[in-house]
Amino acid sequence: MQTATRHDYDVGLVWEGNQGPGTRDYASYGREFRIVVRDKPDLIGSADPAFRGEPRLHNPEELLLAAVASCHMLFYLSLCARGGITVTRYSDTASGRLAVLASGGGSFEEVLLRPRVTISRESDRAAAALLHTRANALCFIANSCKFPIRHEAEIRIQGLNTAAEAAG
């Protein structure tokens, strides 16, 4: 059995959607909230517009996707750095599918990460591609999810894909 090092995290959440009557009925309140983390800027969010939220604000579903994608990226970059692969650019367009049940609950069915990675000419393209699987296996957030997380990675060699690199 492996020994675990524990890290604790604290986040404050404040509902800011009371428009006077509180939650008197489903249409009477706003879905806005504020995420508060000590010594960091607040993050303002809301429900998804499908659930009467504000479309201009981040919703929990988007924040979940951002957490999965950013955790994967950070593990991937660390694995590349330790494995002699020089990453010069990284971007991702993550998507997820949420299934909402008639009862009102639901869950994500899957998340798809589409990382676009540019590596130096000296780096091993095949090894860079394989490290996405390893990053997924190590990612704290991915290991905490009950839905599958798939990857469609694109690995580019710096200087060989100049038009694609300029596009991001």
Structural class: alpha/beta
Q: Kindly state the mean pLDDT as a whole number?
A: 93
Which word captures the global form?
A: elongated
Instruction: Look up the CATH topology of the largest domain.
Output: GMP Synthetase, Chain A, domain 3
- Distance from first to last alpha carbon: 43 Å
Total DSSP E strands: 9
Radius of gyration: 20 Å
Biggest β-sheet, characterized? 3 strands, antiparallel
The percentage of residues in β strands lies in: 15-25%
Number of domains: 2
Assembly classification: single chain
Q: Helix proportion of residues, in percent?
A: 25-40%
Q: Spans with pLDDT under 50 lasting ≥5 residues?
A: none
Number of helices: 4
String of helices and strands: EEEHEEEEHHEEH
Q: What is the annotated CATH architecture of the largest domain?
A: 2-Layer Sandwich
Q: Which strands sit side by side, in order, in the main sheet?
A: 1-2-3
CATH superfamily membership of the largest domain, which one? Answer: K homology (KH) domain
Q: Which CATH class of the largest domain is shown?
A: Alpha Beta
Characteristic key phrases:
single chain, 168 residues, alpha/beta, GMP Synthetase, Chain A, domain 3, 2 domains, three-stranded antiparallel β-sheet, three-stranded mixed β-sheet, 28% helix, elongated
What does this structure look like?
This protein is 28% helix and 24% strand. The protein is an alpha/beta fold. The protein has two domains: 58 residues, no CATH class; 108 residues, GMP Synthetase, Chain A, domain 3 (2-Layer Sandwich). The strands form three sheets. The protein has a three-stranded antiparallel beta sheet, with no helix packed on it.
